[in-house]
Amino acid sequence: MYSPDTNPDVSELPFFERGTPGRKRWYHRWWGKLLLLALALGLVVAVAFGIYVLRVSSLIRSGQLDPQSFLNQPASGSQPAADRSSLATDDDPSVGPAGAAVVIVEFSDFECPYCGQVYPVVKQLIRDYGDRVRFIYRDFPLVDTHPRALPAALAANCAFEQGKFWEMHDKIFENQAALEEADLKRYAIQIGLNSVAFGGCLSSGKYVKEIEDDYNAGIEAGVEATPTFFVNGTLVRGAVPYEALQQLIVAELNR
């Protein structure tokens, strides 16, 4: 026992209260305080970084953040948006003036059901925006899964040769279940093509190289499936609704 005015016997204190006689405990010394401050700051940084990583992971999983864009690197096989202006070619079928404020390039497959699904969306956009938009069609036949996609693309190119690509384009998409050679030749007659010239063009395969060039250009631009659109260079994948493309078009027109 000891009174408040007497000094305690250090030996009688618990070991964690003893300390060194005449010296401050480590956490009372300047370097101890500095160490504690550094540990506290490190803990705050670690917690903040953990929250950030969880947030980024959540955005990537939900599709709101492209991991390649996040890392500031182009996706494998893709071009930066600035280089996609080369996709707007002069030798592919198009609607709208060359000087239109908005250029939409579609890579499509005539046998693809999703391309068929977005077909009326494309027609409505062309109707609604007229000479303010130039729409370009490029071939991207997925021959492994769509065996009639290449013959259909050849038929459309042969129709383009006679100035009636869009008529054949519409016929094919409105009759995707019937794309045999006899069907394609029947559509040629229905849209008023020279059937002899069309038949010769179709059997010769003269536009295979043109279709292959489109396909390779799509691969280089980051096309992985059909349909894929580029709206003034901005990549849009899938059979998106009218409103999604309209929003991009309006944004570009208002620049």
TrEMBL record:
Coiled coil: none annotated. The keyword Transmembrane applies. Residues 60-254 form the Thioredoxin domain. PROSITE patterns: THIOREDOXIN_2 (PS51352). The keyword Transmembrane applies. It comes from the Bacteria. One of its GO terms (molecular function) is oxidoreductase activity. Keywords: Disulfide bond, Membrane, Oxidoreductase, Redox-active center, Signal, Transmembrane, Transmembrane helix. The chain crosses the membrane at residues 34-54. Residues 71-93 are annotated as: Disordered. Belongs to the thioredoxin family. DsbA subfamily. This is Thioredoxin domain-containing protein. It comes from Candidatus Buchananbacteria bacterium RIFCSPHIGHO2_02_FULL_56_16.
